[in-house]
Design brief:
The complex is a heterodimer of chains A (463) and B (120). Chain A has three domains: 70 residues; 190 residues, no CATH class; 169 residues, Rossmann fold. Chain A has 463 residues and is α/β, with parallel strands linked by helices. In chain A, strand 2, helix 14 and strand 3 form a beta-alpha-beta unit. A six-stranded parallel beta sheet of chain A has the order 3-2-1-4-5-6. The longest helix of chain A has 29 residues. Chain B is mainly alpha-helical and 120 residues long. In chain B, 77% of the residues lie in helices and 0% in strands. Chain B contains six helices and no strands. In chain B, helix 4 runs antiparallel to helix 6. Classes of the chains: A alpha/beta (463), B mainly alpha (120).
C-alpha cells in the first residue's frame, strides 16, 4: 500500500514540475493549472489512504471550511490580487508553523534528532515570520490600519537585530538540546512568538512601492517552510513542491530587485521612500498642461502610441477606459502598444493581468527591454499612473536615489503625455524632470475620467 | 566536474547504506528540485508572473499532505487531541490556498487572449 502511495507522490512531483514548465507561455499555461490540480488531488487521496491516517472527521470538516473560504478568495477583483496573494502566503506559512509545532510536541525526545529539530525550527521560524509579515504586507496593500509608507523609529535597526539575534540564539539552544522537555517547550514557544514579532518588524519599514519584491520574498519563505516540513515528515514530495515555490519566489525577487537596481538588504532595511527629498522649492520650473481636446487631436494625428501604465491606473480603475482608448486609436490605424516595467504595480506582473482583464491582447503588452529601442520612433508616449519608472534622472542624475534603475525611455518619444492628479512627487518623493520637458504635456485629472474624456473627444472628431 | 559527481554519488550511496542519513538524500532532492525550479521559472514569460505566483502558491499548499498526516494519525491521537487541532488548522489553511490558488490562476489565465486588432 505504502509503495503505491509513494508512486502517486512521485507522479505528483513530476506533474508539479510540468505544471510550472507549461506556464512559460500563455498558450500552454492553462494546461499547467490542470496538471497542478491533478497532482494535488492525487496526493490528497494518496495521503488519505495511508495506514496511520484513521480519523477522518476533523480532516473533512477542516477541508470543507478551507474550500469555503478559498472560493470567495478566488473571486476578488483583479486590482485586489496583490493583497490576496499576500494573504495566501500567510495561509501557507500558518499551515507550516502549525504542523511544525504539532511535530515538536508529539515526537518523542528520541525522535527529535538534531537534524529533525533543526528542520522543525526552520519550519516554525520561517512559518511564523512569513505569517505575520504577509498579514502586514496585505494590510499595507489594502491601506488599512498599517501606514503604507515606511514606518521608522529610533533604534529600529537595534530592535530588529535584537529580535533576530534572540531567535537565532534560542534556536541554537533548541537544536543542541534536541528534546521536548518543559524547558525546551518554553524555549520553543518563545522562538515561535519572537518569529511572529520579527515578521511585523520586518515589514513595518517597507513602503508600498517595494511590495513586488516583498511579496516575492515572502513567497520564497512560504515555499521554504514547506520544504522544512518535508524534512520533518519524511515526505520528499513536500521537499520538491516546496523547493519549486521557494525558487520561484527567489527568482521573482531577483527580477524585481534588478528592475529597481536595489539589493535585498536595501529593500528590507532601507526604508526607501521615507525621506521626503526637499525639492528645490525656490526655483519655479515651468510645465505645460493640456485639455482632453488637445490631447485627443495630438493622438489622432499620431502614427504610433506607447502607453505606460502604473499603479495609479489600478487605483483609478482606469484599465477599461484605457482599453476604449486602445480600440478607438487602433480603429484609426494607429499602432498602440503597452510598455510594462517589471515593478509597475504592486506585485510581479500586476499590470499585465489588469490589461488582460480589460481584453487587451497580450501581444500588445511589451516588456521594458523590448520597447525601449522603439521609443525614439514613437510619436506619443502616454503615461497613466506611472512616475518613478519614467524618471530620466535614473539615467542621468548620479545624486538621485533612483540613479541606475532601469526605466522606460519615454523622454525619447516625440511627444510625452502624463495623466496625473497633481504635480506632487511620486512614491519615492523624487521630483520627475520629465514633467518640465518642452515636449511634455501634463494632463491633470483622475486617470479614469481623463482617459474617458479623450475617448469622447476622439469619437466627436469623426470616424 | 566529474570528481564532484563521484563524490556526490558516493555521499548519496554511503548515506543510503548507513540508514539515518537519508537526510542527506533529502538534501540532494532539495538541491536538485531548487535548480529545476529556478531553471523552469526563469523561462516563464513576465506576462504571467502574477498567475505564476498564485499557481506556485497553490502548489506549495501540498503541505496539506503533512496536515492530513498530523490531523488524522491514529498514533498521535493516542497522545491527545493536540495533533488533531494543529493539523486541522494547517489543513484549513492549506485547503484555502489550494482552492483559491488554482481557481484564481485559471481565472486570470482565461483573460490572456491573443486577439486580432479591431478592424476599422
Amino acid at each position: 500500500m505504502t509503495s503505491v502511495i509513494y508512486f502517486i507522490y512521485l507522479v505528483a512531483a513530476a506533474l508539479f514540475v510540468l505544471s510550472l514548465k507549461w506556464m512559460n507561455t500563455p498558450t500552454t499555461a492553462r494546461r499547467g493549472v490542470i496538471a497542478g490540480v491533478v497532482a494535488m488531488a492525487a496526493s490528497i487521496v494518496g495521503t488519505m489512504i495511508l495506514p496511520d491516517v484513521q480519523h477522518y472527521r476533523a480532516i473533512l470538516i477542516a477541508m470543507i471550511l478551507g474550500a469555503g473560504l478559498g472560493i470567495p478568495l478566488a473571486m476578488v477583483p483583479l486590482t485586489a490580487v496583490p493583497q490576496r496573494t499576500a494573504l495566501s502566503h500567510a495561509f501557507g506559512a500558518l499551515a507550516a508553523a502549525a504542523v511544525g509545532a504539532a511535530k515538536f510536541f508529539l515526537l518523542t525526545s528520541e525522535q527529535l534528532t538534531p537534524f529533525i529539530t533543526t528542520a522543525i525550527v526552520f519550519e516554525v521560524v520561517l512559518g511564523g515570520l512569513t505569517l505575520t509579515g504577509s498579514v502586514m504586507a496585505a494590510l499595507k496593500l489594502m491601506e488599512k490600519w498599517v501606514p503604507t509608507r515606511p514606518v521608522t523609529y529610533a533604534n529600529q535597526k537595534v530592535v530588529n537585530f535584537g529580535v533576530i539575534g534572540l531567535v537565532v540564539v534560542m534556536s541554537i539552544f533548541l537544536i543542541v538540546r534536541n528534546d521536548n522537555t518543559m524547558l525546551s517547550s518554553i524555549l520553543f514557544m518563545a522562538v515561535l512568538v519572537l518569529s511572529l514579532v520579527w515578521g511585523v518588524l520586518l515589514i513595518l519599514p517597507i513602503g508600498g512601492a517595494d511590495m513586488p519584491t516583498v511579496i516575492s520574498i515572502l513567497n520564497s519563505f512560504a515555499g521554504l517552510s514547506a520544504v522544512a516540513m518535508g524534512f520533518v515528515l519524511d515526505i520528499p514530495l513536500l521537499i520538491v513542491a516546496g523547493a519549486l515555490d521557494g525558487s520561484s519566489g527567489f527568482i521573482l525577487s531577483i527580477i524585481m530587485c534588478r528592475a529597481m537596481n536595489r539589493s535585498f538588504t536595501n529593500v528590507l532595511f532601507g526604508a526607501f521612500g521615507q525621506v521626503q527629498t526637499a525639492a528645490a522649492a525656490g526655483e519655479q520650473k515651468t510645465y505645460r498642461s493640456a485639455t482632453p481636446e488637445e490631447a485627443a487631436s495630438i493622438l489622432d494625428s499620431a502614427g504610433s502610441v506607447v502607453v505606460v501604465p502604473g499603479y495609479g491606473m489600478a487605483v483609478a480603475q482606469a484599465q477599461h477606459k484605457v482599453r476604449e482608448l486602445y480600440d478607438s486609436l487602433t480603429k484609426r490605424g494607429i499602432d498602440v502598444k503597452f510598455a510594462i516595467h517589471p515593478v509597475a504595480g504592486r506585485m510581479p506582473g500586476h499590470m499585465n493581468v489588469l490589461l488582460a482583464e480589460a481584453d487587451i491582447p497580450y501581444d500588445k503588452l511589451i516588456e521594458m527591454d523590448e520597447i525601449n529601442p522603439e521609443m525614439p520612433q514613437t510619436d506619443v508616449a502616454l503615461i497613466i499612473g506611472a512616475n518613478d519608472v519614467t524618471n530620466p534622472a535614473a539615467r542621468t542624475d548620479k545624486s538621485s536615489p533612483i540613479y541606475g534603475m532601469p526605466i522606460i525611455d519615454v523622454d525619447k518619444a516625440r511627444n510625452v503625455m502624463v495623466v496625473k492628479r497633481s504635480m506632487n512627487p511620486g512614491f519615492a518623493g523624487i521630483d520627475n524632470e520629465l514633467y518640465y520637458l518642452p515636449r511634455t504635456m501634463m494632463l491633470f485629472g483622475d486617470a479614469k475620467g481623463f482617459v474617458g474624456d479623450i475617448v469622447k473627444e476622439l469619437a466627436h472628431a469623426g470616424h | 566536474m566529474s570528481n564532484w559527481l563521484i563524490l556526490a554519488s558516493e555521499a548519496a550511496t554511503a548515506s543510503y547504506e548507513s540508514g539515518p542519513s537519508k537526510n542527506t538524500l533529502y538534501l540532494f532532492i532539495f538541491l536538485l528540485a531548487s535548480f529545476v525550479g529556478m531553471d523552469v521559472i526563469r523561462k516563464v514569460s513576465p506576462l504571467l508572473h502574477t498567475p505564476l505566483m498564485s499557481l506556485t502558491n497553490a502548489i506549495s499548499a501540498i503541505s496539506i499532505v503533512g496536515a492530513i498526516v498530523v490531523c488524522g494519525s491514529a498514533h498521535y491521537r493516542e497522545k491527545g487531541t493536540l495533533g488533531m487541532w494543529l493539523g486541522a488548522i494547517a489543513l484549513f489553511a492549506a485547503m484555502t490556498n489550494i482552492v483559491s490558488g488554482f481557481l484564481i490562476t485559471d481565472r486570470m489565465l482565461k483573460m490572456f487572449k491573443k486577439r486580432e486588432a479591431v478592424k476599422p
